[in-house]
Amino acid sequence: MPRPLARFIKCMNTVEVESLLAREAPLFLPVGTLEAHGRHLPVGTDTICAEKIAEELSINLQGAVAPALEYGLTNVLAQTSPASFFPEELFEKFFEQIVENFYK
Asked: Does the reported pTM lie above 0.70?
């Protein structure tokens, strides 16, 4: 039997998204900070891993994957390398707003 494909919100039409949310299917929001991982890995490693985990969860739990949030809380390397992060309070409000927008 072929393996079911993950459902990505960004690839769904409005009717599909509304149906998904109406049945209260789990929605997975991948989060990963863009930051240096040495010369051997891309700066998007955190997001790439989070997206793969969300994809597997969406398949196994019959949910969907929201567009990735490529900003996080990791500011350790911000002074010495490219990184994308928010202060904790702002990140929390931003994250909550994303969830509220889907489940209003």
From this structure: yes
